[in-house]
Amino acid sequence: MKILYVLLEIGFAVAVWRLGDRARKQQLTARSAALLAGVCAALLMFLIATDWPLTDWAPAVNRFWDEHGIVGGTIQSVLLLGVGLLSYEAGQLRAQERLDESVTAAGLGGIVDHVVDAEVGLAFLSSPEPPDAHGWDWAPGRPLQWLRHGRARLHRTASDRSGDPRTWPATLPPTADSEWRVELVDQCIRRLLVALRDWTPLIASSRNGTRVLVAMAELRKDLVELESRLGDDRAVVEGLLLSLRGRARLLAYFLELKSGADPLRPEVLESFEPLPVTPASLEWAADPSGRDLFGAEWTRDLESATQALTRGS
Asked: Per the UniProt record, which residue ranges are transmembrane (predicted)?
C-alpha cells in the first residue's frame, strides 16, 4: 500500500509539472491555465480542511491523515506549486494572447486590400468586355496591380460608381473572347496567394489568424474551380461566381472590423447589394470538412457582419 501512495505522489507531481510545462510552451490558453490553477487551489483548500485537527470530520478521515502525514504534506506542496506555477503562466499567456491579437489585427488589415481586389476582379467577369473597355488599365503581370490606379472609383461614397464592377449583378454574359476571363481569374488567384505568402508569418501566431488563412485558402480553391469551369453551363458558373463574390465581400468587411479600423477604409463595401446572397451562397466550402472555420466567438462576429451587410442591402 505504501508503494501505491508513493506512485500516486509521483504521478500527481508529474501531472502538475506537465501542465505547467504545456502552459510555458503556450500549448494551453490563458483561460485553461487559470482554470487549472483554480482546480489546484480548490483541491489544496479541501486537503487542508480535511487535515485540520480542529475540524469535525468523520473519525476515518482524521485517522487517515494521522497515518499518512507525509502523503498529505507532499500533495499539499505539489498543489501549492501548481497554484503558483499555473497562475504565473496564465498571466504570461494572457499577455501573449493580447500581443497576438494586436499583431493579428495589423495583419488582417493588410489582407483586406487583397480580398477587395479579388472581388473587384471577379466582378469584372460580369461584363462581356475586359476591364480596359471600362476605363481601367487592364494588363497582365503582377496580379491586379492595375487596380492601384484610379482607386477612388472603388470608394463606396464615390459620386459616380458606374466604374465599380461590384455594383453589377453576378451574371456571366457571352463574350467574344473568353481568354481575358481566364487571365482575370488567374490574377485573382495569384492575388490571394500573395496575401497568404506575405501575411502568414504575421497572423499565423494566433488561432484566429490561422483560421483566416484557412478561409483564404478555401476562397483560392474555389477560384481554381471557377477558372476550370468558365466554359461550362452558365447557370452553374454563375452560382459559383455569386458565392465567391458574396464570400469575398463578407470576408473583406469582417476582417476590416476585426482589424479595429474605424472608420472602414472607403473601398470596403457595407452591403451585399446587388448580390442576392443566401446562407447557402455564403458557405465557405462545398466540402463539409472546410466548414466551421472559425471558433465560437469569431463565428458570432461573422454572423453579426453578415447581418450588417444584409441590412445595408
From this structure: 28-49, 69-88
> In 251-276, which positions are buried (b, 16+ CB within 10 angstroms) versus exposed (e)?
bbbbbbbbbeeeebeebbbeebeebe
Residue 130 contacts residue 182 (beta carbons within 8 Å):
no
Per the confidence metrics, is the pTM higher than 0.70?
Answer: yes
Do the beta carbons of residue 128 and residue 169 sit within 8 Å? no
Q: What is the pLDDT of residues 275-298, one digit of tens each?
A: 998 887 787 655 555 455 666 677
Q: Tell me the CB-side half-sphere exposure of residue 40, using CA atoms within 13 A.
A: 26
- Evaluate whether 163 touches 135 at the Cβ level (below 8 Å): yes
User: Dihedral through CA 115, CA 121, CA 125, CA 128, nearest 10?
Assistant: 160
Q: Which amino acid is at 148?
A: R
